Amino acid sequence: xxxxxxxxxxxxxxxxxxxxxxxxxxxxxxxxxxxxxxxxxxxxxxxxxxxxxxxxxxxxxxxxxxxxxxxxxxxxxxxxxxxxxxxxxxxxxxxxxxxxxxxxxxxxxxxxxxxxxxxxxxxxxxxxxxxxxxxxxxxxxxxxxxxxxxxxxxxxxxxxxxxxxxxxxxxxxxxxxxxxxxxxxxxxxxxxxxxxxxxxxxxxxxxxxxxxxxxxxxxxxxxxxxxxxxxxxxxxxxxxxxxxxxxxxxxxxxxxxxxxxxxxxxxxxxxxxxxxxxxxxxxxxxxxxxxxxxxxxxxxxxxxxxxxxxxxxxxxxxxxxxx
Length: 323
Known about the structure:
Layout: E1 2-4, E2 7-12, E3 20-25, E4 31-35, E5 40-44, E6 60-64, E7 69-75, E8 78-83, E9 88-93, E10 99-104, E11 109-114, E12 120-124, E13 129-132, E14 135-138, E15 143-148, E16 154-158, E17 163-167, E18 173-178, E19 183-188, E20 194-199, E21 204-209, E22 212-217, E23 222-227, E24 233-238, E25 243-248, E26 253-259, E27 264-268, E28 278-282, E29 291-292, E30 295-296, H1 305-322
Antiparallel strand pairs: 1-2, 1-28, 3-4, 4-5, 5-6, 7-8, 8-9, 9-10, 11-12, 12-13, 13-14, 15-16, 16-17, 17-18, 19-20, 20-21, 21-22, 23-24, 24-25, 25-26, 27-28, 29-30
């Protein structure tokens, strides 16, 4: 889904193969989407603001790469892709898409980000570690997200239990916060002053700024996060309700909510090369089972419990109506 926040009713849906999950902007203005269930990447050219509903084939390029591509990051002319099926971060040359030697990680590399010095920060969900450059740091149970601030601080969230760990650029722990609510995504603003966490099990977003923690209710199942360029607005995707909430961070409340359809997952505010649009990659309703490519986030299914409860509530309500 591609939309202008000033005119959300004019949003356009771009067909993609099954399993769109993460999205990242390339330096030339295109965006890449990971297709975990299709073992592929999709490269979309969104640089023109007047794209028609039916895109030409050359505007959506599908790259079959095998494995289970998930997390994405870009540095220069290299695209980094986490792949839990091989326990590594795979590297591709942007443009030719030739694959280079992969980078070994911990078990089940999930999300990654680049630090200011060019190192990789990788959340390894299955062995409770954070790979930070050439170091491996123990973190809380099932780290599913990672975010890097402009000064090199790194944050990772524990999806089972809800703990937020923050490290400095050298890997020393600077803070631990009990968020609860299963933080599935983290994001720093451009200045590195504000850290947002999507609490998928409690219908809220946690905001950590200047050492103070506050929670802002948004409802639904918060997932994707994106800051406006000036840092005042925070966009939050709702996986359950298929909508995006706009939070005014100065007032700590939702000021707008608009539907985008079929589960708003990863969000991106593209750079100026694309224009004043944000991109929402939605996963089909039938595939919102708390899985990436068919495998649960946690082996015992604990991380999926809240979504199963939502599903069961809907079934119970439907059964009552039929009576």
